[in-house]
Amino acid sequence: MLEENLDKILRISADMGHYIGDAHVPLHTTSNYNGQQTDQLGIHAFWETRIPEMFADEEYDFLVGQSDYIYKPVEHYWNIVNKSHSLVEDVLGIEKLLSQNYPEDQQDCFVERGEGYIQKMACEEYAKLYNEKLNGQVEARFRDAIKAVGDAWYTAWVDAGEPDLEEIFDNREIKKDLKEREKLKKDILTKKIIGR
To answer: What is the pLDDT of residues 83-141, one digit of tens each?
Structure first.
């Protein structure tokens, strides 16, 4: 932001968002990150993908309020990691107990993901029950991640002297880039031979 380099702002902001989001996933804080040590292979995708795909659109509230400045970044980020790690026992323990008391043939199903792609995933009813037993944990971590990313971006902006991001965007040769992309898209659709 200090350099007013939009490409770097966007790339680094995306990287920050990715890593901050990852820090909110409990299984990212343990060597048993996919249940390989507890005979729970696939629990990572179960928690991080299956549950959100089933419930996020209809049930999650992603409005988390305005961003706050992070005064103690090191402490702030370690608190995120420690909070995530404190949930590992529940993530694994609840699923382990559930799997021992739920019909084994109703735990995993084959689910169509995308056109013609079938993947083994937790069955819908099993996933619903696991989500209920987690008592909103996945949504809470998603909400905390959204807030933390916003706080990080806001803090970076304040620390850079609150530059006018709209002006930075407008000053970039964005119109030229957009015209080139539109032409490329049109050329691809009309199947012209193109080169750059």
So the answer is: 999 999 999 999 999 999 999 999 999 988 878 889 899 999 999 999 999 999 999 99
Give the predicted TM-score (pTM) of the model: 0.83
C-alpha dist (Å) from residue 175 to 112, 140, 163, 169? 39, 39, 21, 10
Per-position b or e across 94-122, b if 16+ CB within 10 A of its CB? bbeebbeebeeeebeeeeeeeeeeeeebb
